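Reopening this ticket.

The earlier resolution said the output was attached, but the attachment link was broken on my side. Pasting everything inline this time so it's all in one place.
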Amino acid sequence: MNFLTSPAPTARPQSARRVIWATACALGVGLALPLKANELVCHYDYGGEVTALPVAPTTAPYAVPAIKIGSFFKFRVVWQTAPADLAAVHVYVYLDAPDAPTLLQQGTWVFSVDHPTGTGFTGLQRVYEPVRGSELQYWCVGSAPARGAP
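Inline output:
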């Protein structure tokens, strides 16, 4: 059979075209909505007071400052998202010594939204200031937006 003897293609009914067009538009609108990104919140407990620290993703880890907690600690959380082979959550706890900050703990975790306990993907971490014995507890929790959330 060649193109001279083949039957002419049948046209789709007008209603089928409308259904296809409406479906394509609906899918396009759904894809055009902005997607909410994953979120990271680290919680720390010092002196019985729990504070939630939202952490923004960064591609410039050295620009993330440490925050002062009480008189003895500095706390720094870096959520590095790029490059992909270095993507991780890095947590640093320093002793705020008079001469210079001294690193007490450094932890690195892969960001995760799956954590069956209430202490997130890091688990509950405890860090002690060596001279006075002050305790800092922290944990980090990742979350993903609900499907279809704005």
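Reporter confirms the inline version is readable. The two ends are 54 Å apart (CA to CA). Confidence is low (pLDDT under 50) at residues 16-35.
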